[in-house]
Design goal:
Blueprint: H1 2-21, H2 25-40, H3 43-46, E1 50-61, E2 64-77, E3 87-93, E4 99-103, E5 108-112, E6 115-118, H4 121-132, H5 135-142, E7 149-158, E8 161-169, E9 175-181, E10 187-196, E11 201-215, E12 218-228, E13 231-243
Antiparallel strand pairs: 1-2, 1-13, 2-3, 3-4, 4-5, 5-6, 7-8, 8-9, 9-10, 10-11, 11-12, 12-13
Amino acid sequence: MKRSALFLVLLSGALPVSAQTAESHEARGKRVVYEALKALGGDAFLQMNDRVESGRAYSFYREQISGLDRATIYTRYLAPAPGRLEMRERENFGLKQDSGFLLLEDGAWELNFHGARPMADDKFASYRMSALRNVLYILRQRLNEPEMAFYSQGSDMFEHRPVEIVDITDADTNTVTVYFDARSKLPARQSFRKRNEQFHDFDTEVTIFGLYRDVGGVMWPCNIRRERNGERVYEMFADQVQINQDLKDNLFTVPADLKVLPKGK
């Protein structure tokens, strides 16, 4: 009887300690996110000022290839600001790399031999929304925003790999759900919903990250696939990635010799 009583006393004393050390959904979500930041390179990732990716880019329509081009994507990060897109991107396509897009923090342009056409407001708004919800952009630029919240949805399997699932929500209640590889800690998949103004419903946007490679101390995905409502719409296979190339302002400026065309519709 004495031994049984002693065991119950010890057990009852241990329960509060166990309860106190249990990880909340919020704490687990934050831990997984910061483990991902460390896996991506930690300080090296945060100090990545610019990046150049080159490779093959495919576009799809109803799961069939509708376009194939050689692509080079130039990205430069600006000083972070809560809720704002602080990144500039230049996308060049084709053998001559003479067509593509110039995507700035406050507007965008389509560039080709005809001239420079400002992107329609709704298309730029869609690009901006997708860029702000990209988990790699969030980890580089947005982690310290006020009211940024992380909530673990637990663990699961994705493409035969164990993953940790975390909802990341910003101050405007925009949420992206991210699958982090439980072994490598790197982002493997993300998804979010956005309103389709044409059909007055919602589209589900999915991005899948793969083939991570070490680029100057930063782990970067060389295979990026985007899906909309379950159908593949874009995929890029980068055969070369470089960081901190000191990209100049003129790369992110509309060339002076291009004719300015009416805004797109």
